[in-house]
Amino acid sequence: MHHVPRALPLLAAPLLIAAALLPGAVPAAAASGAAPGAPAAEPVPLTPESAQEFVDTRVAELLEEHGAPGVAVTVVGGGEQLASASHGYSDLAERTPLDHTAQTFPLASVSKSLTAAAVLTLVDSGEIDLDEDVNTYLPGDAQLSTDGITMHHLLTHTAGFEELVDIPPADDTAAHLTLDEVVRTSDPESLHEPGRFPGYSNHGSGLAGFIAQEVSGVPFDEFVEQAVLAPLGMEGSGFVQVHEARETFDLPTFHLADGSVAGDLHVSATPAGAALATTDDMARFMLALLGGGELDGERVLPASVPALMTDRQFEVHPDLTSVGYGTYQWRGGDSPVIGHGGDLVGMHTAYTLIPAIDAGVFVAVNGADTAPEAQANPMKDLRMEVASAFSETFDPQDPPTGEADPAADLGAYAGSYISSRRAGSGPAQLSVLLGTMVVRDAGDGSLSINGGMALDDRWLPAGDGRFVAENGEDELVFLEEDGEVVALATDSNPTQVSERTAFLDNPLVHGVAAAASLLILFTAFVQFSRARDRFTVVARVLGSLTALACYVAVGVLAYGMFVETSKLEEWILGGSLLLTAPLAVAVPLTVATAAVAVSAWVRGRLTAAGRVHLSLVVAAAAVFLLVGAQYGFVWGLS
User: Fold this and answer.
1) What is the mean pLDDT of the chain?
2) What are phi and psi of 71, to 5 degrees?
3) Is the pLDDT at 120 greater than 50, yes or no?
4) Which residues fall within 8 angstroms of residue 529, CB to CB, at 6 or more apart?
5) Range with the lowest mean pLDDT among 39-43, 206-210, 222-226, 350-354?
6) Which domains does the chain carry?
7) How far is C-alpha 246 from the geometric centre of its chain's CA atoms?
8) Residue 440 C-alpha from the chain's centroid
């Protein structure tokens, strides 16, 4: 309720339905704003005065720069809540001010941290074993077909699950599922064996919450209340669907980039993204984690819970950021930044902790940015920039550096890489196409990397398969197995890696094939004007209708991506037939056109050129349909 142009969450922005088709905000690198290679600025001591200055002045400046509707923020440090503020509007149309003292904010994937804390209380009591196969805790009708998946895997996003998208609109009540229904009716495909790679999973977090419910014998929302919210005094928080919460809570309006109102969604995997909290409550949660489970001089969580949440529980490389239980690192190194982000359509949240200075910040933004940079890359949105600015102000770190090596042969790294967080079926597979990272040897001792979540185009070697973005905002490591490069992992997002693709699995190859097919299909319209006898008319009409169906499919997708950008997300989340019906119609049309083409060859109908052309149209349609089916855009075959 993470991660489209340059990249695509629980819920993400339109094309980071490719970095993260929804749920889970993409971790943002807490990069220095200084010039590449420049030393970090001197830290500002964190005091109640400097914290208030930050939330009053710096956050207001960032809101002005990014053009989002409103932002609420709270800062903790030294065992107390230091400062809070809200700026902008709760409702743009009504010009209602955002008010952190009165309003409650949907947390989206920040909910996963609350879920993990609750689960870990059962681990502390010995009722759940982190390394036990989760099927041990699941009823017969909810058993996973893949063996060896543990709670450790669920809490670190390393179960290997495909991404499941089950977040229908609030008004589509027929599609709303309970947590029990989600778990009992879903058995996600395994993209790789458990523990091999991280792959952000909303279903995994939902399953973890369901197991807590089964083991405790208490409904999930009540169990979290008993185990976490009540002990911490988080009186304004709970797990409630947004469309239901609006009846009793004062929630802000969610906004799209154009200022219009975003519709509410139903998060079926409740533990993954259906929590609400006030800024004061999130301050108490952060203080409990920083305080080792103590708050206001009392123990509110077992000491093991914050330790397990903030420790490095899974890493792909010791030099990169890691994943904790219900958290991930936003910055590694000597002074790591730890937390979680969340996205719903029109609502974005994040909290970060800096244990080295005993500090934390929570941010909630009730709409998308209007700033072009943020629209192109969600890792640059207001929520992420506030979190980054907090680190840069109070605990700046020197950015990583690398140096071009003209003598180095970097060709072994070249190729296309796709995210380990991806859907196994349906149009949500579009995230693979939009999230592809293309690596090339630049020929000057550096790598050129484009697409996906690449925060720069030029990357400089830093030794042992590690590369640093020239702008200092990120670093990555190429992962090898048996001497072969199999994936790349970035410091900015430890919840997934990008896996190297074979030629026939390469999304760019698929894109080229689809584009070439469309060019050939376009000629069907031209040839239609030359039709004369009845057989020729039938052949041309069928060829033209087949081409038209394919072009309608492209037109619908283009409309959702570039005109009404919120529509693509809405259609994918809601399982709209608009995305799959055009190519479903194209299938029988292609078969009928193929039959006519065969008849033309067998009976010598049409001219020789006409028979060849019709055959090319059929072949082009078949290729286009294969590509469409690959990404779930053929109804019945997705």
Assistant:
1) 89
2) -145, 135
3) yes
4) none
5) 39-43
6) 411-504 (2.40.128), 505-630 (no CATH)
7) 25
8) 25
